[in-house]
Amino acid sequence: MATIKDLQEEIIAEFSDFDDWLDRYQLLIDLGSEQEPLPEEYKTDNNLIEGCQSRVWLQADLIDGKVRFMAESDALIVKGIVALLIKVYSGQTPDDILANEPYFVEAIGLKEHLSPTRSNGLVAMIKQMKLYALAFKARG
Question: Per the confidence metrics, is the pTM higher than 0.85?
Fold first, then answer.
């Protein structure tokens, strides 16, 4: 299993192939399109992330000591951002999730190229993933 750091380095490498932000947005949209749709039963108000301009649902389950995230958004770019966060954090232990910040966000320039509302949404998504990890750790 790749570490969170390895996965972040992969993302940084993937995005560094593109200098133009339009190409990077296209990559985000493609990543979001490739993501498996979230089953309808998880599209509940409980799974909606507060603080996002678009609707984002996040489902988390603890399976064999690893957190498995699934998510979906009704906005294409946001769906891509969620796909990146899932790539980094899904399948990791609660401890690893809590110990690793998503530094790839700044490394690929994502933060400065998002609108303030999308940026707030990104922070809200990361916070929610960490809260799930914390809850699973406390339960464990």
Answer: yes
- Domain boundaries defined on the chain: 4-139
Token code pair at residue 53:
């301009």
Could you give the angle at which helices 21-34 and 76-89 cross, rounded to 10 degrees? 70
The pLDDT value given to residue 52: 73
Q: Which of 31, 52, 75, 81 is catalytic?
A: 52
Give yes or no for a contact between 72 and 38, defined as CB atoms under 8 angstroms apart. Answer: yes
Q: Which long-range contacts (CB under 8 A, 24 or more apart) does 49-56 make?
A: 49/121, 49/124, 49/125, 49/128, 50/124, 51/120, 51/121, 51/123, 51/124, 52/78, 52/120, 52/121, 52/124, 52/125, 53/115, 53/117, 53/118, 53/120, 53/121, 54/78, 54/121, 56/82, 56/121, 56/125
Q: Please report the pLDDT score of residue 87 as a whole number.
A: 97
For 4-139, CATH number?
3.90.1010.10
Residues 64, 91: contact at Cβ < 8 Å? no
Query: Is 52 tagged catalytic?
Result: yes
